Amino acid sequence: MQEPVFSYVPGASVIHRLDPRTKVTTVMLLGILTFRVDNFAGIVALFAFFFVLALLSGLPIKIFLRAVRPMMLFIFFIFLTQMFFTDGRPFASYWILQPSLEGLEKGLKLAARFIFLLLFAALLTASTDPSAITCGVERMVRPLPLRWLGISSFELATMMNISIAFFPLLFERVERTKAAQTARGMDFVKNPFRSIPALAVPLLRGVIRDAEELALAMEGRGYQGNQRTSIHELSMQKNDWEAFFILVLFILFILIL
User: Fold this and answer.
1) What digits encode the pLDDT tens for the residues 34-50?
2) Which three-class secondary structure state does DSSP give residue 229?
3) What is the residue-averaged pLDDT of the chain?
4) What distance in Å separates the CA atoms of residue 150 and residue 12, rounded to the nearest whole number?
5) Residue 226 and residue 229: Cα distance in Å, rounded?
6) Rounded CA separation 133/253 (Å)
7) What DSSP string runs through 14-83?
8) Among the four residues 17, 50, 144, 149, which has the most C-beta atoms within 10 Å?
9) What are residue 48's phi and psi, to 5 degrees?
């Protein structure tokens, strides 16, 4: 059976061995940098940097393609919206629609940014165990005064752990629901407007049912949200500091392009 989207792939690469705090911080900074890049030279540099990271991780390319594929329709819609509704010099005419060169450039940049976010997120989740991500995030937010908001870093980490665990299962449930509706005679190509409620309604009911079952299971096991020990003892190693140094150099290189 095919692994769900954004699932963890065990390995022993240099990316797998990095501290989860290093990888989470790197993905956050690269995500911010993605939206700061405003030229195609920076986009090409970002793609080259991701390609190097993917090679170092030893992960198959199909993992990243599976991460992007579910969002391609949305990304294509964003691209068309920018191309047809951005003012500028038109390069063609389709009835009342006149795509502009400025819109084409803006649409390509925006589509590339969304794709980069998905690729870096896939790299993080595929190279890091979900429990390690949770532990790393909990250590990062522990100094924050979250008690003023009525929560603790451990509760926040638990919510993140549940979200990470449910995210690939959500895509798996979408595929199962789609297959079930197709077996009942639903054609998602010929009936796009009827297929949306046919897919969304059972999907929403299933997600709510899973959330209720999880809440009951946690209550039955006496979950209180208190501080708990972890099997992951995090410590920054030489490779982590080297990774941060390379990341800072790359960010400076992108900003001066």
Assistant:
1) 988 888 888 999 999 99
2) coil
3) 82
4) 39
5) 10
6) 28
7) TTTTS-HHHHHHHHHHHHHHHHH--SHHHHHHHHHHHHHHHHHHT--HHHHHHHHGGGHHHHHHHHHHHH
8) 50
9) -65, -40
Give the alpha-carbon dihedral of 14, 19, 25, 28, to 10 degrees. 60
CA angle 132/239/154 to nearest 5° reads 25
| Rg of the chain over all Cα atoms, to the nearest angstrom | 21
Q: How many residues comprise the chain?
A: 257
Residues 6+ apart with CB under 8 A from 253: 45
Tens-place pLDDT, residues 175-187: 788 888 778 777 7
Tokens of 61: 């390319």
Contact 61, 97 (CB under 8 A): no
Q: Is 154 helix (H, G, I), strand (E, B) or coil?
A: helix
Helix (H, G, I), strand (E, B) or coil at 90: strand
Asked if 100 contacts 91 with a C-beta cutoff of 8 angstroms, the reply is yes
Token pair belonging to 193? 């407007």
Residue position matching structure tokens 């790359």? 250
Locate 133 and state its tokens. 């991500």
Token output for 37: 């890049």
CA–CA separation, 203 vs 169, rounded Å? 11
Residue 90: phi and psi, rounded to 5, are: -70, 140
Q: Which of 117, 118, 153 is nearest to 135 (CA)?
A: 153
List Cα–Cα distances, 239 to 59, 128, 129, 149, in angstroms: 19, 16, 18, 35
Global pTM reads 0.77
pLDDT at 38: 83
The two tokens of residue 157 are 């980490």
